[in-house]
Design brief:
This protein has seven helices and 16 strands. It has about 325 residues and is an alpha+beta fold. It has one domain: 4-Layer Sandwich (Anthranilate synthase). Strands 1, 2, 7, 8, 9, 10, 11, 13 and 14 form a nine-stranded antiparallel β-sheet that branches. Strand 1 and strand 2 form a beta hairpin. Helix 1 packs across helix 6. The longest helix is centred in the C-terminal third of the chain and has 20 residues. It is globular. This is Anthranilate synthase component I family protein.
Length: about 325
């Protein structure tokens, strides 16, 4: 295990987790094989509590809208972290197996290494690499059905695509950045997203350290301009995001291939607690209460799987309260 991203350009197959705050965990495995997801015990977690309750979240949205009016940011992704007691006997592989059955996702991954346990059901590709070709597929825009998207969803997606283009352009061959897909509708369990694709070719001399340095944290979970959004969110969010909104995935250094998901739809075990993050992108056109409800929509399916509860129950009904 190492925190050196340069190891990903060496040899072997690696599991990779980078927290939103930048803590890197790279674990190289001696043996890699195809196998079913491992089973494990799972016990329903305790009562969920939120780092921001509805009133605090709505107030945060208003502050972001004020910052937009002042020209500080164009968009920012306001998040909250839910926590529940992790019962004795519950294992992260057990939760990962439940997610694989109940909420299959294109970039799902369960990671259990010393000091780190994550069960991720991410629908969003942060970075894929095949040799020198890299691709990102930012998600912006969430609705229950395709006809539920608002004009602000498309505008937000285009803003983030421009940000990702600029990030990749910092380490790409001149003229190689392209957008082969813009605001395409993707269906996922319980909701739909607008997804775009940005592709580029790495300039000579650049590898994983330079690629992540130029693009992290992912633009879809920060805002634009990224540096201003990060400062603003640091003032509005009371707890660290951890693996949520970071990067979770794998790298095969021998074949120079890899895939890192944006660490959304992710649970992680920490200090006897199970944590889960949810958030929404805020623009000038945002309705604060609707943004709160979007965070509930994004979390509902995953918490149902983890808790074994029926569909349609809101987080408020689950007791997701601010401590």
């Amino acid at each position: 295990m190492t925190s050196d991203l340069g190891a990903l350009d060496s040899r072997g197959w690696w599991a990779v987790v980078v927290t939103y705050e930048g803590k890197v965990t790279c674990a190289r495995f001696e043996r890699v094989r195809r196998a079913p997801h491992p089973g494990g015990a799972w016990v329903r977690p305790g009562e969920w509590r939120s780092s921001l309750d509805e009133a605090a979240y709505v107030a945060g949205v208003e502050k972001i809208r004020d910052a937009i009016a002042d020209g500080v940011v164009y968009q920012a992704n306001l998040c909250r972290v839910l926590s529940a007691e992790l019962p004795a006997g519950a294992t992260i592989e057990g939760l990962g197996a439940r997610l694989a059955r109940g909420n299959p996702a294109p970039h799902a991954m369960t990671v259990k290494v010393p000091g780190l346990e994550v069960a991720c059901a991410s629908p969003e590709l942060y970075l894929a690499r095949d040799g020198d070709v890299v691709e990102s597929r930012p998600i912006k825009g969430t609705a229950r059905t395709p006809d539920g998207f608002l004009p602000k969803d498309h505008a937000e997606n285009v803003m983030i695509v421009d940000l990702v283009r600029n990030d990749l352009g910092r380490i790409a061959e001149v003229g190689s950045v392209e957008v082969p897909g813009l605001c395409e509708v993707e269906e996922h369990p319980g909701l739909v997203h607008l997804v775009s694709t940005v592709r580029a070719r790495l300039a000579g001399g650049h590898g994983w350290p330079e690629l992540i340095a130029a693009t992290f944290p992912p633009g879809s979970v920060t805002g634009a301009p990224k540096s201003s959004a990060l400062k603003l969110l640091g003032m509005l969010e009371p707890v660290p995001r951890g693996p949520y909104c970071g990067a979770v995935g794998w790298v095969d250094a021998d074949s120079r291939r890899g895939g890192l998901a944006v660490g959304i739809r992710s649970f992680w075990a920490e200090e006897g607690l199970l944590r889960f993050g949810t958030g929404a992108g805020i623009t000038w056109g945002s309705d604060p209460l609707l943004e709160w409800r979007e965070t509930e929509l994004k979390a509902a399916r995953l918490l149902e799987v983890a808790s074994g509860e029926g569909a349609g129950q809101g987080l408020a009904e689950r007791g997701a309260r601010r401590p």
